[in-house]
């Protein structure tokens, strides 16, 4: 499984982990080294939160439309895939 280290805005690193225990070990190390402002999470496995791979919010396992105004005509993943199940991709 691929894990990413993030502060919620930027991705600072990637690692392969074999288990959730391995992910927890990485988180424990990050907590010791920082002021707990960095989080390790599994890439592409989101139920509620932010999908850093596609840069889109997810609620109940489905992509949520971005908050940009219509006039912006953005191509955000959330706008293009609103309502789609995250596991369908």
- Count of domains: 2
List the secondary-structure elements in sequence, H or E.
EEHEEEEH
Q: Briefly note the structural class of the backbone.
A: alpha+beta
Low-confidence stretches: none
The helical percent reads 10-25%
The geometry reads as elongated
Quantity of strands, as a count? 6
What proportion of the residues form beta strands (DSSP E)? Answer: 25-35%
| Mean pLDDT across all amino acids | 83
Count of alpha and pi helical runs: 2
Strand order of the largest sheet: 2-1-3
> Distance N terminus to C terminus?
17 Å
Rg over alpha carbons: 15 Å
Task: Give a short account of the largest sheet.
Answer: 3 strands, antiparallel
Put the structure in a nutshell.
The protein is of the alpha+beta class and 89 residues long.
Please give a structural write-up:
By secondary structure, the chain is of the alpha+beta class. The chain has 2 domains: 1-43, no CATH class; 46-89, no CATH class. 20% of the residues lie in helices and 27% in strands. It contains 2 helices and 6 strands. The protein has helices spanning 20-33, 77-80, and strands at residues 2-6, 11-16, 39-42, 49-51, 56-59, 62-63. The strands form 2 sheets. It has a 3-stranded antiparallel sheet, covered by helices on one side. A 3-stranded antiparallel sheet has the order 4-5-6. Strand 4 and strand 5 form a beta hairpin. The longest helix has 14 residues, at 20-33. The chain is elongated and about 45 Å long. 10% of the residues are buried. The model has no long low-confidence stretch (mean pLDDT 83).
């Amino acid at each position: 499984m691929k894990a990413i280290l993030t502060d919620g805005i930027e991705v600072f690193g990637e690692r392969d982990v074999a288990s959730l225990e391995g992910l927890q070990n990485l988180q424990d190390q990050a907590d010791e080294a920082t002021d707990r402002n960095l989080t390790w999470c599994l890439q592409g496995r989101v139920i509620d939160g932010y999908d850093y791979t596609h840069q889109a919010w997810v609620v109940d396992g489905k992509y949520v439309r971005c908050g940009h105004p219509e006039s912006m005509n953005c191509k955000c993943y959330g706008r293009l895939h609103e309502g789609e199940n995250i596991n369908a991709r």
